[in-house]
Amino acid sequence: MATTNNISSIDIHNLSFIKSNKNEPLLVLNNYVYKRNKTTAKRKYWVCVIRGCQVYVHTTLSNEYAGGGTDLHSHAPNPELVQVKKVRQKMKERALNEVTLIGMIYEEEIAKSSMTRSALAIFPTNSEIYQGVAKARRKAAPELPQSCFFTIPDIYKSTIDGKRFLLYDGSPIRRERILLFGNDDQLDLLFDSHTVFMDGTFSKAPHNFCQIYIIHAVNFDICKFDMCLWPINDQKVDRVQTDICRTETNRISTCDLSTNTISWKNVSESNVRTNNNCEGYHNRMNCRLQRNHPNMWLLLNFLQKEEKRATSMMIQCTSGASKKKDQRTAAIQNRIDAL
Ligand SMILES: [Zn+2]
Predict the structure, then answer these.
(1) From CA 246, how far away is CA 263, in angstroms rounded?
(2) pTM for this one?
(3) How far is the C-alpha of 334 from the C-alpha of 339, rounded, in Å?
(4) By residue range, what is the domain housing residue 59?
(5) Which positions fall inside the FLYWCH-type domain (predicted)?
(6) 73 falls within a domain
């Protein structure tokens, strides 16, 4: 069915771009979809994706409308298809950039979208979309390691801002490996802190590793900053703690921080009576990772984002930001202090 589509109906503000299933760019103008036909020194030429329909749109190399799209199409526009493609693309982008479960991304994006009933009717179900999105996620990440001895890709050795992130990578004991992550500002904060919490979690450790051990440096009264490391499997907790102390010592000398000393104290010598800070962070990990034993790359991705968050919090607290204490929490803390 041909539709009336003269030059007066062209609204270049409706011009947008989406990605095809093969990750090729597609141009969308007035609910018609165009694929790139050829590119010259000054122009990109886009042709309607419907086979046999020879309507062209021209854009500049920076994807600004330059002409075309005013001829009659041999078919009706398909706004539902455009909506479906946009929502699918959003889901795929989120799956590649976040550690959120694919099923949850699907539900959230469906809830957020303003798709019409017709578009929803042709939208694939979660089970139909899952395999493709999961494959894209697997393809975007390096191959999963089969043991604890693997080469860490460079993108995970540095922070999102490109600074040093992998602080220590060693095998103090044969067939065992310890990785230590954090940034230099967090190290400074750690050595400036009078109170340090340390706690481990087994359920969030990736395969081939035994435990994630987290050091919380309490600073700015309320804020804590985190460093994460995880020792390899087959270790008992007491040995893990010994290893961490040894690793700390190595790192201190490596980082020329040997003038700083940390006196390791038992919690019984401290006025802190609860480990709520540690448990709270475990809860945060549960919410963010949403699964036990995530794969290595998902975990490293999570750690990089946590580093970014900690850095942001540090800047905010340094500039005077503070957290209002909850009255109920303050009352409980007062009772604990009075014990
Ligand atoms: Zn067409």
Answers:
(1) 13
(2) 0.63
(3) 9
(4) 7-68
(5) 17-75
(6) no
